[in-house]
# Entry
Amino acid sequence: MAGNEWPEPGELVVGTVDEIADFGVFVDMEGYEHRGLVHVSEVASGWIKNVRDHVSVGRTVVAKVLEVDESAQQVDLSLKDVNEHQRKQTIQEWKNQQKADKWMELAFGEDHDRDDVVEALTAEYDSLYEAFEEAAVHGMEALDDVGLDDEAAQAVVQTARENVSVPYVNVTGYVDIRSPGPEGVDDVKEALRAAEGDGDHEVPEEVELEVSYVGAPEYRIEVQAPDYKTAEAELEAAAARAETAIEERGGTAEYHRERNEPEE
# Structure
């Protein structure tokens, strides 16, 4: 929004209270050239004895744009029409945008091509922050359709991976592996290596997968991934690889989500 002259009616804007009068509150809107006015009747629900009981100069607020009068150079805002969920979400999006702007500065400095990179990223993703988040998780693959040259794409990925805190989820499953053959121990080891992504079975870069011993014949598979869909898919794929590998050696494997209770 930086540099835009006027917001749109109905838009939620972040701003800083920079003046309080008896008739209302002036708000310096982030990303816009003009201040907005919150009439006293739009500061809070109910009768207001003193505006300063509800807002203070320097406070960051989220306001809803009620009306824009360009000829009068006026933007009418409301604080009372913003609920707590909207306020928190808008503040978070604003903070994310500030972070993303900082990351762009880290990646490209004052390079005049920075605006072109922003335009390319936001054409593919809903926000600059989302673009960096995806680059942190998926690396260069996330930028395949963005149209950046290799140098710019690498700068985005490197900066993302050094600065973006990506939320991860953890899932766990179990597989019982049995091999009756004379090379049973080695057969099981091969199945475990297959489960972990050994050889031709590569686990995606953004996924951490670990197989550990629970108690014969049970083994635990733990997966950490950026989202549940990916985590569940990789968990099931790991178990399937173990099953294929052991069956090729005459053994069996059984996958289950809960640990088997030890027999009395």
Observations:
- Helices lie at 84-108, 114-124, 128-138, 150-163, 184-195, 228-247.
- The two ends are 66 Å apart (CA to CA).
- Residues 84-108 form the longest helix (25 residues).
- The first strand starts at residue 12 and ends at 21.
